[in-house]
Prior knowledge:
Layout: H1 11-22, E1 41-47, H2 54-65, E2 70-76, H3 92-99, E3 114-117, E4 121-123, H4 128-139, E5 148-150, E6 156-159, E7 169-184, E8 194-210, E9 215-218, E10 228-235, E11 241-247
Amino acid sequence: MRFRGWIFPAAAGLAALFAAASSAQPAAPRAATRETPAEPVVVELFTAQGCAGCPEVNARVEALAAEPGVIALTYAVDYWDYLGWPDTFARPEFAERQRGYRRPLRLRAVSTPQVVIDGRRTAPVAVAEALQAVVAEEAARRVFPPEIEFRETGDRVGVGSGRAPAGGAEVVAVIYKPGPQSVEIGAGDNRGRTVRQVNVVRAVEVLGGWTGRPGLYRLPTDVSEDEAIAVLVQTRADRRILNGAVRTSD
Length: 250
């Protein structure tokens, strides 16, 4: 598969945009003839250690996570805990994030495992090739996203100008541990199995709103050296992810 590349714009480009913002001058609209920057595909997996059908899909998403141009994020939900195994990674806010997709994606209900691509659509998970095909389709989408740049100081991220969606958007920081983690399950449907998950999310924080004009946002400080931050620009109304970028400790 061919995927869109990462957004790491030249510092001079965003510096000019931020200068415009600081002088309270509206940013000039991006010219239609300008080549569209490539942006990654954001793959969000909602899963649970107590879900019997989840380990196979976890493995498929782990394979996608290794592809260039893909940001794969695993959110552990807590509503499977009633089966007898409290998920060691789950948080109620992750289930709330999943439920936030139900109405805009016109889903009758949420389920696990569930994969959401770019906040725009769900993807079939039963067959690896079908999941890959949806990611490839999103990779081919040509859009004009706002650029994202992490400051060298490591404490802030810049988001450039762009067409503001109806209802505005928000800049979201997703803190996660890159790579796979394995947990031995001691109860419930997966008792006796070792469940493996990749890029497990620890926390999600909204950094502020984005209305189409460039701005700087302060990054969370409670991030350990073995964790990464994915910054997503996501619409408020229909939850589409306009762009994303990752900062690691490397």
